[in-house]
Design goal:
It is a single chain. The protein has 231 residues and is of the alpha/beta class. The protein has one domain: NAD(P)-binding Rossmann-like Domain (Rossmann fold, 3-Layer(aba) Sandwich). It is 43% helix and 16% strand. The protein has nine helices and eight strands. A six-stranded parallel sheet has the order 3-2-1-4-5-6, with helices on both faces. Helix 1 packs across helix 9. The longest helix has 22 residues. The protein starts with a strand and ends with a helix.
């Protein structure tokens, strides 16, 4: 039986991916923050229905020791590194935490795999936010990066780290450039859920209006359940 490790298993993509891998007969492990285990009702709701089929490991991606020990113990065949501080506007409010979690966390996962599971196939979830200020649309793998947020910068660093570990150490490490993808499991701070929740609140008389950010932005949208199958 193949073993897969998912960071960010409690998120939108992680929960769909866990379901998909279980259906394919994998032994699925997930890294969660310790605080999630203290409040499972709110923090584990996306995986509550499959929790008894998963192997959960409490750890912090900001601690190399905890990441190292988990990968040493599991020795996964596949690792899907999805965990990140992924809300773009928040990355401006707390850029230090965003950089620490997204860059160091990715570095820790890559390093631990190199040392303890070099056979492991790693997937890193990069982002269209790496492109930032673009001069061509649509973008492709050859479009230059010009990130315009701490989040985008952190994803470029993760992209380069992943490529470097592949080229320097010969491990299987690939990047997926993910554009916007949505589902009912998307967080309410993101625009599609903000709109649907706002409309519902207006319908129920709980709100009178809906405030959004940049209305000039153009995005390609997909369904998260489809995206994880491509991973």
């Amino acid at each position: 039986m193949k073993k897969a490790l998912i960071t960010g298993i409690t998120g939108q993509d992680g929960s769909y991916l866990a379901e998909f891998l279980l259906e394919r007969g994998y032994e699925v492990h997930g890294i969660v923050r310790r605080v999630a285990l203290e409040d499972p009702e709110h923090r584990l709701w996306r995986i509550r229905h499959i929790l008894d089929k998963l192997v959960i490991h409490p750890a912090s991606l900001e601690s190399y020791a905890s990441v190292f020990s988990i990968i040493e113990k599991i020795k996964p065949d596949e690792c899907y590194h999805l965990a990140a501080q992924s809300f773009v506007s928040y990355s401006f409010e707390d850029e230090f935490s965003t950089i620490n979690t997204n860059i160091n966390g990715t570095h820790f996962v890559l390093s631990a795999i190199k040392e303890k599971a070099p056979h492991c196939r790693l997937y890193f979830a990069s982002s269209s936010e790496m492109f930032g200020l673009v001069k061509e649309s649509p973008q492709n793998e050859n479009t230059p990066f010009h990130p315009r947020s701490p989040y985008g910068i952190s994803k470029v660093a993760g992209f380069d780290l992943t490529r470097n570990y592949r080229e320097s150490y010969g491990i299987f490490a690939c990047n997926g450039m993910l554009f916007n993808h949505e589902s009912p499991r998307r967080g309410f701070e993101f625009v599609t859920r903000k709109i649907t929740n706002g409309v519902a609140r207006i319908k129920l008389g709980l709100a009178k209006g809906l405030r959004l950010g940049n209305l000039e932005a153009k995005r390609d949208w997909g369904f998260a359940g489809d995206y994880i199958r491509a991973m």
